[in-house]
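User: Structure with fe (ii) ion, tokens only please.
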Amino acid sequence: MSETADALKELEDELALVHLRGQWQGDPNRTTKVTESPKNGIRMEPVPSGVPHIWTWAQIEPLLAKSLHAMAESKTARRTLVMYNPGLARGATHTLVTAIQTIHPGEVAWVHRHTIAALRFVIQGGAGVTTVVDGEALVMEPYDLILTPCWTWHDHHNESGKPAIWLDALDVPLVHNLNQIFYEEPGAPAQNARDDPVGPSPLFRKTWDRGAGPERPLRYAWRDTLAQLERHAEEPGSPHDGIALEYVNGATGGSALPTIGCWIQMLPPGFQGTRHRHTSSAVYFVVGGEGATEFDDQTLDWRRHDTLAVPNWAWHRHVNRSSSEPAYLFSVNDIPILRAFGLYREEPEISQLQLDPLGPAP
Ligand SMILES: [Fe+2]
Ligand SMILES: [Fe+2]
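Assistant:
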């Protein structure tokens, strides 16, 4: 070891004693891939967090039925099966938690509120199944989207004759890593829901309240969602995602929740998506249809009510295996967080032909 190297080693040892590290030593906890660019430069990019993974409805459904008996009372803790990615300590992706929740007929899932933002995508519901959000009772019909934004009171009710079931999505990993988790229970099982058959409208605001903006609806009915998809069905759509619509906050034009983007997409019969990758991660829920999502080293086949995790920066493409039926996918993503900080990137796969249309030099 040269004299300089000795001195450097001695310095690094001394730094470690007082919890310092030379920037040149690198960060062993950093998850980046470093490659050399063509002109001997350096390029760094993220390594995807977690792995592609599917939770099939065939796996979940019998366990959900079992949970109704094994956990007789859902009041104090939600009867929820939380999905975790085999490659992560927490979350279906590194920013999103998803789960399947069920409530017995006659049950109330206790009112509470938390700084974690959440949403429900209804699988089994109908008349008598409601979520009350800050006093507003929202009916939960199949495939409706219901938002429970940060710090809103919410309780769930099932006054129907069969179990209510829905997909939960929450921004737990983000809020947890920022160490911003607050939680409250008022001690009563439910809120007093106001009688509000009309509901709020993003088209109107109160003139007597100067600070008031348009009111945002917290429920996106599947009937309206499907009608919008069908309205655009003949358009070319995205080469990666088909006819993909984003649910927006009608009052701001922004994403449905500040931390969670929500999409609904229709893959036309025989759709063969082109590969791409993006810095956002997503969790897909199959509303209907049969298809597959292909990654670099595996293909995950999906069908109705399966849930699929797509990690950030992982190459993938979607395929509709049916030549006659469209496939419908609901998904949640972390795009709003990334866009807010200028971090969102998307990269379509560029073939060699596109890079060099004249072909290789002789
Ligand atoms: Fe909650
Ligand atoms: Fe994608």
